[in-house]
Design goal:
single chain; 286 residues; seven-stranded antiparallel β-sheet; five-stranded antiparallel β-sheet; 2 helices; 20 strands
């Protein structure tokens, strides 16, 4: 029995030593593999010292990113002195309040047949005849709506509703109560030329009585009915209107202030408790 145990000691010892050797080899292999993986991962990461991103901030804040991507850029889209009139397909070019209005066309006043009962106002060698007493109120130009333009207003094109009117070989254009004369690059709004005849006038006209006949007044222009047409006439002295267009000049004559359009003077008055204007007859004092 003793001999059998002695014979088994050597194989058992060799088996134990072999197992320890295999265990040590397996641990070494695992450490070697881990070191290689770590070395591989470390070499794949870029070096922050060799690669620099200048003037750029990277963030994961989506709110900042969305705000940047959805930034609203405000552009200066203000167009000075330009207006688009959609209702008439006109593009206006000059809307300056200081526009040079040429309002001296056909503004001579016609004498009235009604005798003046009041003494005229005299100043500077002239007599200023009116039927109503002077009553000052500030001159406030009246606006007849989007289809109306004051005298001196310039447009590049006219609406398709504009019609051509010829007076003594001179061509004019008329559209919805506004008269135009050809100008360089477009058309200029002008006072209605005396003698111009049209088949219709705007629905917003004011009927005024000259003392003898009725006139139709719109935008500073006077019309008289002739059959089925309307002819432009000069203002009649003594005619009273409620409103005056843009382009008039408030002038001081002695102690009074008048509104002047070319050679036509309007005196501020009060009629039926309302501020109005009367066409003045101006004569040289003998």
């Amino acid at each position: 029995m003793k001999n059998i145990l002695n014979s088994l000691k050597m194989p058992i010892l060799i088996g134990i030593m072999g197992s320890l050797f295999l265990i040590s080899m397996s641990g070494w292999a695992q450490r070697n593999t881990s070191d290689r993986r770590a070395s591989s991962t470390q070499s794949a990461r870029p070096s922050t010292s060799s690669s620099k991103i200048r003037d750029r901030k990277i963030t994961n804040d989506r709110r900042n990113s969305d705000a940047s991507n959805n930034k609203v850029v405000r552009r200066n889209t203000t167009v000075r002195n330009t207006t688009v009139n959609k209702s008439r397909n006109n593009v206006t070019v000059n809307v300056n309040n200081n526009v040079n209005v040429r309002n001296n066309r056909n503004t001579i006043v016609r004498r009235n047949t009604v005798v003046y009962a009041r003494q005229p106002y005299r100043y500077g060698g002239y007599r200023y005849h009116t039927y109503h007493p002077y009553y000052y109120h500030p001159y406030r130009p009246f606006y007849w709506g989007p289809v109306w333009h004051p005298w001196g207003f310039f447009v590049r094109t006219l609406a398709v509703t504009a019609v051509v009117v010829r007076i003594e070989n001179t061509q004019y254009h008329y559209d919805q109560g506004v008269w135009y004369s050809p100008a360089t690059g477009g058309y200029e709004a002008i006072p209605g030329p005396v003698g111009g005849t049209v088949n219709y006038i705007p629905s917003g006209v004011q009927t005024v009585n000259t003392g003898t006949v009725n006139n139709y007044y719109y935008g500073g222009t006077y019309y008289e009915k002739e059959g089925s047409s309307y002819r432009v006439v000069a203002p009649t002295a003594g005619t009273i209107v409620e409103s005056l267009p843009e382009g008039g000049e408030e002038v001081t004559i002695g102690d009074l202030k008048y509104i002047k359009f070319g050679e036509t003077y309007y005196q501020p008055i009060q009629d039926d408790g309302k501020d109005k204007y009367e066409v003045v007859l101006v004569e040289k004092d003998n």
